[in-house]
Structure formats: C-alpha cells, structure tokens
Amino acid sequence: MDFNFLNLNKSDNVGTILLNRPECGNALNLLLAEDLISALENCCEDETINAVVITGKGDHFCSGGDLKDSKNNPDGRSEYWKHLTRRLNRIIVNIRYTRKPVIASVNGPAVGAGMSIACAADLRIASASAIFKQGWTSVGLVPDGAWTLMLPLTLGMSKASELIFMDPEITAAEAYNFSLVNLVTPNDELERTTIKWALKLAKGPFEALARSKELLNESMLNILEAQLGRERREIVEAARTEDHKEAVEAFLNKRDPIFKGI
Asked: What is the CATH architecture assignment of 1-187+206-262?
C-alpha cells in the first residue's frame, strides 16, 4: 500500500505507523491525515495485526496542524480547518474504536493535533526529550481531536484548564508525573521499549484485551463522536477570527502575536 507521508511496517503481528514529514516536524496536513486514516484502517482490517504503534520520523512526533498549509489554502483558513478536522476526527475514532491496542511512541514534541493523537492511544511511551503542548489557543484556535474529552479524563478539569488557558510546554518527566504518559525512556531506548510493549500486547490474549478496550470506551468515551463534532464546529469559527490570522502571521514570521480579541 502506497502512502504520501508515512511508512507502514508489519512485523511479528505489530503494525508500526511512522509519520514521515520530518522537514516540518511531521505537521498534519490533508495528505498526511488521509494517509494516517488509511494506515489505521489497514491495520484494523488485517487479521495478522494484533497491536499498533504510531511514532514520528526525526525529532518530532507530530507538531500539530500545518499552519503554512492553512495560510496558503485557496478556500481560506476556516475551510482548511473544516477539512483537516474532519480527517482528524476519523483518525481519533479509528484509534479508539479499533479493537487492537494502540501505543503512541512519542519520540519528540507532540503539539496540538499531535497531542490529541497521542492521547487517543491506549498507551503512551515517551522519550526523555519529548514534550507535550496544547498549542491551539496560542494561535487563536480551540482544541480538537477529542482533546477536551481525553485530557480532563486523564488529568482532571483543573490541570486541563491550565493547559488550555496558559498553554505551557510539558516535559516528559512532568507528563509522567501527571499520568499523561505510562513510561519515559532514554531517547536511545524508546524504540526497543516500544517494541517490547507492542510484542507483549500482540502475543497476549487478544479477545480479552479487545473486549476490555471496548468496555473502557463504553464507560468513559460514550460521548466521543458528539464532542468531536462540537470541537470541529468551534475550531472552524475560531479560524475566521482576526486573532487567528494574526497568530499565523506571527508564527510564520517568528514574532510574538498581538491579539485584539476579535
């Protein structure tokens, strides 16, 4: 199966998805999003695959939605985010509703949509140099990819609110202390540790694991698709604001934005 911006490797009943836009921090654009949807569905449908790993090539996991592409979109920024979030929503639903355990192997910054993808996974292993950042509000947008569901469940309302309003960078060590990640490894041990975990899942009692994941989804994520829809509507509206336009220009020109609240 051919992809534009990712690699899919299958070995020992594990499907490993490698995001492959390292020149821009594996930023999510429409083509990479389509690739990721297809790769996840391919792993879901392949009866030889019992566990899935998502990671990034280079020194980033995923730096979020591609702001340069959003600026250059001929139909405008709001249309770009409408199309990108529709795809991101399918990615999140595929991760959660596949019966197969999914590990996010976070090899570097996971920002915005990258953080949402990592947090949708069942397990997260981070390298010591990984960081997590909400990102959206700093560019005049709102979180999407079920961020506003997953993070309050994982961290609690107070910490999730802090991440939205203050938008700090969270180190791997802090993420472990917050229970945002399951394990932190030295950078050079991340791949080996991820493979070890993935093989344990792939060789485990598949039906028990799959049914357990379904129970977790039903007990804690029964509003997932409704929340994804709400987030999508809000990010499209936020993309129409002058503050978002200013934030994108500031980001691309490496300066601080001047927000006016409009």
From this structure: Alpha-Beta Complex (3.90)
